[in-house]
Amino acid sequence: MSQVRSLSVDDPIRDCPVPAETVGLLARARPEAVPGLVDGIPEATRARLAVWLYGRSHTHEIGVRVAATCEGAALRRAAGLVGNVLYDLSRRPYAAPSHGTRTGSAGRISLGGSRRAV
Q1: Distance (Å, rounded) from C-alpha 45 to C-alpha 37?
Q2: What is the domain partition of the chain in residue ranges?
Q3: Would you call 54 helix, strand, or coil by DSSP?
Q4: pLDDT at 90 over 60
């Protein structure tokens, strides 16, 4: 039976499956260099790394690129349904998540309150 550990709020890098230096290299690397940087990492660890990176908003794209170096079965073993989705995402051109972006022509929002005269 596999046991899932919760992420630490105090030290998020603690749960990363590779050293922090590796994550730093990946973060600074050009997108096309990612496969070469993870080449020596065992596939099961790469799959966990892909899931870990994808789970952070600032490293989504790197997670997808690392996932592209993994087989679907490895990603499924690492993260179940999330692994399936990550596998699918990694097989098509990367599109940044759209959550938190404004769309349409909605009016401005002010935290200053109403300007109506009473």
Answers
A1: 13
A2: 42-94
A3: helix
A4: yes
